[in-house]
Write a structure and sequence with these properties.
Order of helices and strands: HEHHEH
Radius of gyration: 28 Å
Number of domains: 1
Strand content: under 5%
Number of helices: 4
Shape: rod-shaped
Protein name: Transmembrane protein
Organism: Musa balbisiana
Strand order of the largest sheet: 1-2
Largest sheet: 2 strands, antiparallel
Keywords: Membrane, Transmembrane, Transmembrane helix
Amino acid sequence: MAEETGLGYSGGGEAVDGSIGLEAAIQALNTIIQLHFEKILEKKREVDEQKKEMWRLFQLFFLFLAVVLAAQLGAPPERLQCRHCWAPIGLLSLGHLAFYVAVAQTLRCINGFKYQRRCHKLTLALATDRLKLLKMRFSSYSAVAAGADPPPVLPRDFEIHYQEPPDSYLGKFKRSWAMHFGFLMCTFGVMVSASVVLLCF
């Protein structure tokens, strides 16, 4: 995300010192629009992939729980004493911890991709508005001065810099991440306590 945040765009991706023609400016804006549209689709695919990865984590985790609990419950009744249960309890605790850390990291990646997608949407919207204004301005000029060549386009009319949402938007992601992390830690404590109760009492 840091690499993308520093990107700025002008005509063909390079700095422009002087004015250019109308067609070149429109082509530059169309290129920027196409680039950010593709980036939005790319970030959406990455979010979908992370969601699929989270679903796979859930499947593996519940399979792990089923195997451990089935092995413990399948042991002879005389062995199901509390002192014999600390090994599966420790194994379950480590499994829970690994699962929740993986889920937390996946959620962090999803939030990061969503933030980047939002940045590309803002940049795309700015480029689209700039293109509309450029076309409207020169269509009005053409109507007034028919047959005359349109004036050159200044760099400020078509330069588009990478846009970022306000700090409040980033704060929303941080609050969401903190809430998810706190929920995962509370769930971890509850699940470990439940494992002790189920296996020892």
